[in-house]
Amino acid sequence: xxxxxxxxxxxxxxxxxxxxxxxxxxxxxxxxxxxxxxxxxxxxxxxxxxxxxxxxxxxxxxxxxxxxxxxxxxxxxxxxxxxxxxxxxxxxxxxxxxxxxxxxxxxxxxxxxxxxxxxxxxxxxxxxxxxxxxxxxxxxxxxxxxxxxxxxxxxxxxxxxxxxxxxxxxxxxxxxxxxxxxxxxxxxxxxxxxxxxxx
Length: 199
Fold this sequence. Notes:
The protein has 6 helices and 4 strands; from the N terminus they run αβααβαβααβ. By secondary structure, it is mainly α. It has 3 domains: about 1-70; about 80-125, Roll (Membrane-bound Lytic Murein Transglycosylase D, Chain A), CATH 3.10.350.10; about 135-195, LysM domain (Membrane-bound Lytic Murein Transglycosylase D, Chain A). It has a two-stranded antiparallel sheet with strand order 1-2. A two-stranded antiparallel sheet has the order 3-4. Helix 5 crosses helix 6 (about 175-180). The longest helix is centred in the N-terminal third of the chain and has 72 residues, at about 1-75. It is rod-shaped and about 135 Å long. About 15% of the residues are buried.
């Protein structure tokens, strides 16, 4: 019995000795693992920060270039209810005659058809298109030649096109709009009769 007790005590002492000796190795191993994880974490965290900084810097440079290009070339206008190109051109450029520049910059098939909320590109450095006295008198001559008192709207017509056809001057669309009391000069209907003023 005593032998068994002695053997048991010996085994417990051996186990204590084994644990004590190996505990140092285990703790050292855990510390090494923690240090390695910490170093790797800091490395990748620093790497990500550098990457983000580079990406942000590139984006800022791109945005700056884009903004510079945009500010040198164009502005943007959001169409409000009741707007037409003539009104917008008068507001932006001080002359409704520059409506043609807005129409060209936006590739508008029908310059009289605008929608509230529509975004328009407004070109910078446009030429003053206000007609001189010679242009006005030649437009009046064209008007006299036309000799049309009434025009029937065809499919695809808009006031600029009609004025061009009748007067030889697209800018004269405002005369047609006023003569017909059009609340919205952008809306025409096929078959609609329009008065064509002769003065």
